[in-house]
Amino acid sequence: MAELVLAVPGDIAAPTGGYRYDARVIAELTGRGQAARALSLPDNFPAPSDASIAGALKALSGVPAEATLVVDGLAYGALPAEGIVALGRPVAALVHHPLALETGLSPEDAARLEASERAALAAAALVIATSEATRTILVERFGLDGRRVRVAEPGVDPKPRAKGGGEVPVVLSVGAVTPRKNHATLARALATLSDLPWRWVVAGALDRAPACADALRGEIASLGISDRTELLGAVDEAGLSAVFDGADVFALPSRFEGYGMAVAEALAHGLPVIAGRCEAAAALMSERAGALVEPDDVDALAQALRALLDNPGARARASNAARTRAARLPRWFQCADVFEHLMDRGLPSAAAT
User: Fold this and answer.
1) Rounded to an integer, what distance in angstroms lies between the CA atom of residue 320 and that of residue 311?
2) Which residues contact 181 (CB under 8 A, 6 or more apart)?
3) Local confidence pLDDT in tens for the 353 residues of the chain
4) Would you say the pTM of this structure is higher than 0.85?
5) Cα separation of 91 and 76, whole Å?
6) Which residues have CB under 8 Å from 313's CB, separation 6+?
């Protein structure tokens, strides 16, 4: 039987959108009776040591030749192209979003990562992008032949409508506290709404960018909203379902998203969504389900929040629009279909040059 091996840095059970995607693909395939498994690589990608690179390449070299080998982009983009070629087999790269587009990188680190990822992607037999927006970036910015890029969008499961927070509306943000997710701007916007009742719940890892998390704690304290804010840290699947169920509005003004899995889940729960304007978020949203704002525009973000927090009728209408939009989003079986097709057909024997 054909086998799919999906190589990821560290533990695939880590509570991030990218790892949840990877784990769900494997679960969907094994549920169909397909052979699919994760392969753990050293966990310090995308900034690996020489020893970690050597360890990753050794682990990849041990994958059976007949298996379909896919490497998560968090590791793939930081691997040397010559090491990928030396494996002597076709390898697919799974790109959630290009590494160099992470907010907060120094110009030198961004340039280094872009050069590394460009070379590595040129050595891939095939590239899988998690959205059309990411596919466009890979073709237009990284120079990939569009025929070598497949799109496998994350799925979203049908969800019960969120019950909400009761008398005090809950604003929910889901995502690791990193510069790209831009929680600090949301904190500043919420602080201008002191005349309204609200609570802010943040569910997301606080250890991915510790300096950013510390800065957010300081910002929350200086704005005087500590008593209205709860930083939960990373939560498991049950915890995630609970926080969505207890929310009234979803807000996350990310500066960039490769897809926006948390936005899709919020829509499925019937939450009005306020998101940072980017191509991927725009593709998920409908204009009646919330608002897209410029990520660093505090006034626009505050205005969008006020329009929902101060008007239960507006929230109810946006909730209905969110549910309608979510019903048209892809399901996980469609995402898994892309990987199963690769298993059936096999990867091309070599990358285009």
Assistant:
1) 15
2) 173, 175, 204, 252, 254, 255
3) 689 999 999 999 888 888 999 999 999 999 999 999 999 999 999 999 999 999 999 999 999 999 999 999 999 999 999 999 999 999 999 999 999 988 888 999 999 999 999 999 999 999 999 999 999 999 999 999 999 999 999 999 999 999 999 999 999 999 999 999 999 999 999 999 999 999 999 999 999 899 999 999 999 999 999 999 999 999 998 999 999 999 999 999 999 999 999 999 999 999 999 999 988 889 999 889 999 999 999 999 999 999 999 999 999 999 999 999 999 999 999 999 999 999 999 898 755 43
4) yes
5) 10
6) none
Q: Are 264 and 216 in contact (CB under 8 A)?
A: no
Q: Which residues contact 301 (CB under 8 A, 6 or more apart)?
A: 185, 186, 189, 251, 253, 274, 293
Per the CB < 8 A criterion, the answer to whether 197 and 167 are in contact is yes
Give the neighbor-by-neighbor strand order of the sheet with 92-95.
35-41, 3-9, 68-72, 92-95, 126-129, 149-151
DSSP summary character for residue 78: T
Report which of 87, 60, 102, 24 is spatially closest to residue 351, judged by C-alpha positions: 87
Q: Which residue has the tokens 């498991």?
A: 236
**Residue 57 in tokens:** 């390449």
Compute the C-alpha angle 339/340/343, nearest 5°. 90
Q: Is the peptide bond before 46 cis (omega within 30 degrees of 0)?
A: yes
Place of tokens 């897809």: 259
The tokens for 49 are 């040591």
Look-up of token digits 């919020």: 266
The owner of tokens 């209408």 is 317
224/282 Cα distance (integer angstroms): 32
Any idea which residue has 């969907």 for tokens? 28
Domains of the chain: 3-155+331-345 (3.40.50.2000), 170-326 (3.40.50.2000)
Buried b (16+ CB within 10 A) or exposed e, 193-231: beeeebbbbbbbbbebbeebbeebbebbeebebeebbeb
Output the six-digit token pair for 56: 């990753």
